[in-house]
Structure formats: C-alpha cells, structure tokens
Amino acid sequence: MSEKLWGGRFEKSTDEMINDFQASINFDKRLYREDIAGSIAHAKMLAKCGIISADDLQKITAGLKKILAQIEAGEFKFSAELEDIHMNIEKALTDDIGDAGGRLHTARSRNDQVALDMHMYVRRQVEEIQRLIIEMQKALIDAAEKNLSVIMPGYTHLQRAQPILFSHHLLAYFEMLQRDSDRFCGVYDRADIMPLGAGALAGTTLPIDRKFVANELDFDAIYLNSLDAVSDRDYILEFLSAASILMVHLSRFSEEIILWCSREFNFVELDDAHCTGSSMMPQKKNPDVPELIRGKTGRVIGHLTAMLMTVKALPLAYNKDLQEDKEGLFDAIDTVKFSLAVFAQIVAGMKIKAENMRRAVEEDFSNATDLADYLVKKGVPFRQAHEISGKLVHHCIERGIYLKDLTLDEFKNFSDKFDADIHAAIKPETCVNNRNSFGGTSTEQVKMQIVEARAWLKEVE
Q1: pLDDT score at 279
Q2: Intervals of the chain under pLDDT 50
Q3: How far is CA 236 from CA 119, 131, 256, 377, in A?
Q4: Are 112 and 229 in contact (CB under 8 A)?
Q5: With contact defined as beta carbons under 8 Å apart, do 330 and 85 qualify?
Q6: What pLDDT score was predicted for residue 6?
C-alpha cells in the first residue's frame, strides 16, 4: 500500500522508476524553512477562522518546529516515495501528532503551497544577493580610491583609444552592479505577492483569510486571480534574467582581468590564493577563478533559456512541467552568490602594476584625440584638426617614435597653430584631467563618483 497522502483514488502503488523520475525531494528540500513557515502561518489562519481548533494549532505549530529542528540538525529522513518537501514534512507531522497533522492541509493545495514556498525563497535569496552585490561594490570603491592616480589605456575594439583613470574603469562596473541591484529590487517586488489561498486553481469553499496569512509572512500584496497565483512563474523568469545580466557583467570583468594578467598586458597580478598552476608547466599562474566565472555565465543563461522554454506553451493552471522551475533556479542562485563572493576577494587582493599601465599609455597614440582638441581650441575646425593629427600619427609611426618625442618645430611643420604648450597638452595627466565633463574620467569627476557611491552604500546599509 502506498504511503502517499493522495493515494486514496489509486489501487496500485506508483512504479518505483516513476517515483524516482517525478520525485523532487533531492533538490526541493532546501525549501524546508519556507515550507514550515508557510504551514505555521496557514495553521494560525485556520484557527483564527474557526476551521481548526486552538488545540490543533498548538500541536501543529509544535510539531512543525520539532521537524525544523530535526532537519537543521541533519536528523530528518527524507523519502523519495513522498515525492517532495511538502509531503515529507506533512507525513512526518501526521505520524507525530496524529489527526491534527491531517487537518493542516485544509483549504490549500500543493499547487499554492509550492508557489508560496518559491515566492518566499526567491525573496530571501534576492536579499542575500543584494548584500553580496554591495560587498562587491565596496571592493570596487576601495580599489578605485586606493589607485586614484593610476592612468591606463582605455580601449575600443580592444585597441588603445584614450587615456583614462584605472579607477574610472573600475567604477564602470560599480554602475553595472547598481543596475543589477535595481533589477533584483524589481524581482523582489514580483516575488512579494502571496499565492496561498488559491487552492489547486479555483480558490476554496472554506472561509479563509488570505490577508492574515500575507501579514504573517510579510507579503506586500496578494494574487487577485487564483489561476494566475498557481501558474505564475514570471518572478522566476525575472530572477533568472537579472541573474544572467549580472553574470554577463562579471564575465566581462573576468575577461578583462584575464587579459590584464597576461604577459602581453601585465597590468595586474592576482593573489596567489586566487590562482592555480599547471601540472606540466612550472612557470604558469593561471587566473582560473575569473575563467570559471566566465564559463559559469553560460550556465546561468542556459537556465533562463530552459525556463522560458518550459513555460512558453503551458496552459493554465498548474502543470507538472513547473517542477522544472527549481533545479535551474537553485543552481543559478548558488552560482551567482559564489561568483559575487569570490569576485569581491579577487578585486581586494589584486596587485595593480601602475608603471606598466603608465608605460602603455605613453608608448601609444591614445593622446591623438587630445592633439586634435588642442587644435580645435586654437580655432582649427575639428575635421581639419582630425586630419592633421592623423598625419602626425602616421609620421611618428614611420619614424618609430611617439607624439611626445616630436619637437615643437616638427609639430609646426604640420600646423602653425602649435605652440610651446603642446607637450604639456598631450601628457597623460592632462589628457585625463581635461575630460572633466560630468561622468568623465578626470580626477575631479572620479572623486565625485566615489563620493556618490559611498553615500549610496551608506544609505542602503
């Protein structure tokens, strides 16, 4: 005889292979906190509405707290026969307290129960991820402030473009993470809607109080439509979308760190604790952690794609397909949290090779735009100034020198607008600090960005 709590309609036990195929307990057991909290709130509501007795409520609450302690102590035995976390907990409760345990499921279905658990779980994970984003942002601000005077080449098309402050580059990722945090706020809002009370799909005939449960579990809103309540997975799609974009940002940063660590760039060196060596080549120091984050980004994006494919053709309301919302979500959560935590450590432990960055700026033509701007300020039309600067660059390349190596007479051979101040005008510090437009790379602007960033962090902590 099956021990399944829904087995009354069946004469045969479920095939063992089918049990294994459809059981979700191996991964949804991580929902135990939410499941127990939701059940306690539901029981309180049932008692308040006179649907169960005060004695039943006391037994149910004590029994569920006992199960919570057993699970957290590693003493609870989960059963695949009971399929999921909900049935495992309910069966253990009923075995422990008798009929009172059997009354807990009054006026609810596993459909709205699992939806409740997932809403609560996503809310909690969003809060944890936002805390990790803040830690990553702190690491970026600290590194930016510590290296405020470091100048590096800025790139377009992976070609040296214009000198920028290294701190300006770091703070670009702060802004990306800020948008990530904002997106997760939106995810929280969509997860902060209470589905319990929707039943299997149509509500219940019993006089329940959904607002009471919502208040007990700190939900800001309640689903207005019971069909939508049990079938909605938008908040999971939004979570996976926000997680994918966040991982793309970390992947882009990872790629840059990997490049900067190479001998070809030699701009930074990662802490030994964040690298590995080669089993064959003794000289190697490999940036494995950024590489793994770059690789795991595809994994998170894959979970988003899989979830979109899962829900794209589902009719209302609940379908077993929706069980597939969990494994990808759980893995994405673990991946994002791990990636943020280790990335903050990487940034904090990264050694900046300022002299190498400076040399890279001086031994290129990334100050050519400033050369053109110099002429514009002297009254030369920009297109003409652009052409003169291009010819000067070509002249230097042919001679194997840089703009800083030209004499004033050589500059004047290309335009009589050049004066003795030209060499100061194309120095890296001048190029950087002249870009003092709002949001630019000048020291003044970057200092302002740091002040704004620290003020925001102080506000949210």
Answers
A1: 80
A2: 1, 6
A3: 9, 19, 30, 54
A4: yes
A5: no
A6: 46
Residue 325 · residue 258 · CB < 8 Å: no
Q: What CA–CA distance (Å, rounded) separates 205 from 203? A: 7
Q: Which residues contact 179 (CB under 8 A, 6 or more apart)?
A: 245
What distance in Å separates the CA atoms of residue 115 and residue 192, rounded to the nearest whole number? 12
Residue 407 CB neighbours (<10 A): 9
Under 8 Å between Cβ of 79 and 88: yes
Q: Please check whether residue 71 is in contact with residue 93, taking contact to mean a CB–CB distance below 8 angstroms.
A: no
Q: Which residues are catalytically annotated?
A: 157, 278
Q: Are strands 351-352 and 268-269 parallel, antiparallel or unpaired?
A: antiparallel
Contact between 247 and 339 under an 8 Å Cβ cutoff? The reply is yes
